[in-house]
Automatic annotation (TrEMBL), chain A:
InterPro entries registered for this protein in UniProt: Class_I_gatase-like (IPR029062), PRibForGlyAmidine_synth_PurQ (IPR010075)
Subcellular location: Cytoplasm
GO BP, sorted A to Z: 'de novo' IMP biosynthetic process
A cellular-component GO term for this protein: cytoplasm
Function noted in UniProt: Part of the phosphoribosylformylglycinamidine synthase complex involved in the purines biosynthetic pathway. Catalyzes the ATP-dependent conversion of formylglycinamide ribonucleotide (FGAR) and glutamine to yield formylglycinamidine ribonucleotide (FGAM) and glutamate. The FGAM synthase complex is composed of three subunits. PurQ produces an ammonia molecule by converting glutamine to glutamate. PurL transfers the ammonia molecule to FGAR to form FGAM in an ATP-dependent manner.
A GO MF label: phosphoribosylformylglycinamidine synthase activity
Protein name: Phosphoribosylformylglycinamidine synthase subunit PurQ
Keywords: ATP-binding, Cytoplasm, Glutamine amidotransferase, Hydrolase, Ligase, Nucleotide-binding, Purine biosynthesis
Gene: purQ
Pathway annotation from the record: Purine metabolism; IMP biosynthesis via de novo pathway; 5-amino-1-(5-phospho-D-ribosyl)imidazole from N(2)-formyl-N(1)-(5-phospho-D-ribosyl)glycinamide: step 1/2
EC number, UniProt record: 6.3.5.3, 3.5.1.2
Active-site residues per Swiss-Prot or TrEMBL entry: 89 (nucleophile), 205, 207
UniProt xrefs under PROSITE patterns: GATASE_TYPE_1 (PS51273)
Keyword hit for Cytoplasm: yes
Automatic annotation (TrEMBL), chain B:
BP-aspect Gene Ontology terms: 'de novo' IMP biosynthetic process
Annotated source species: Chitinophaga tropicalis
Nucleotide-binding recorded as keyword: yes
Catalytic activity: N(2)-formyl-N(1)-(5-phospho-beta-D-ribosyl)glycinamide + L-glutamine + ATP + H2O = 2-formamido-N(1)-(5-O-phospho-beta-D-ribosyl)acetamidine + L-glutamate + ADP + phosphate + H(+)
Subunit structure comment from the entry: Part of the FGAM synthase complex composed of 1 PurL, 1 PurQ and 2 PurS subunits.
Function: Part of the phosphoribosylformylglycinamidine synthase complex involved in the purines biosynthetic pathway. Catalyzes the ATP-dependent conversion of formylglycinamide ribonucleotide (FGAR) and glutamine to yield formylglycinamidine ribonucleotide (FGAM) and glutamate. The FGAM synthase complex is composed of three subunits. PurQ produces an ammonia molecule by converting glutamine to glutamate. PurL transfers the ammonia molecule to FGAR to form FGAM in an ATP-dependent manner.
Protein name: Phosphoribosylformylglycinamidine synthase subunit PurS
GO cellular component: cytoplasm
Source species, domain of life: Bacteria
Pfam family, one: PurS
Gene: purS
Amino acid sequence: MKFGVVTFPGSNCDHDMIDSLRKDLGQEVIELWHKDKDLSMFSKEDCIVIPGGFSYGDYLRCGAIARFSPMMQSVIEFANKGGRVIGVCNGFQILCEAGLLPGALLRNANQQFVCKNIFLKSENTAASITKDVTGRPLMIPVAHGEGRYYADDATLEQLFANNQVLFRYCDEFGNIVDTANPNGAIRNIAGICNKERNVFGMMPHPERATSNVLGNTDGQLIFQSLINNN
Amino acid sequence: MTFTAHINVMPLKELLDPQGKAVMSGLKNLGISNVHDVRIGKHITLQIDAATKEEAKQLAENACQKLLANQVMESFEVNIQ
């Protein structure tokens, strides 16, 4: 399989993502530009990555403008045909605004931009991205001001009933507690997927935790699961 | 005719508005008390070419539903002048 990483004006985690996938995980990566449209080189088992940053300056709302870019039209089409798409941080916000994932990301409840390591627990093994992520909680960095996941009660009920909740914030022992929630996300939700399990979104940055030099390789487990279970 | 749509987009009432909360503590620091809630949204104006006021309103509401407001977290109201 191969990865495609999209760069928008204002993306700033695109090269972290490319570097992590290429060098730390040894994957083929094609760099994609927001003005282009061509995704013909990708097949269903490949994965398009929408990286973090501040696409289009977060104008109007985070991710609201990016969804109109030519490349996003192709990404939406790719996802609707069953291709795999993952959005991290701003990428998660874009996927919600594009209607590929339910819910929205609100301003952090604690009025702060949060930039630190947090712990994540994978909720189920139904999706390719969490299939091999079992056992101990993962330590992954977050860096966002608008990461408070929110969805109405009916949507939440469906997310849990369909095993669409991928990751929840927990303490280092795996307990889902309020004190481990960095942004006030409803029910500690850090990542979700769509019903068809081919579109994934998460606020934490696994690409910042794939290198021994950086002292943390927990993020590799997430990408490796995606790679192994295509 | 050209109409002006005045659009207010506000965070849903049931959701915490951290921006409003921060501004409220600023008001308190200034000694402006008696304020017990601050909520912050956006005011958007559109200049619309339309035959009637109703048509302009419909157009503005469509814009709100599709882009200007995210109804998962925001509500909107449109006034045409």
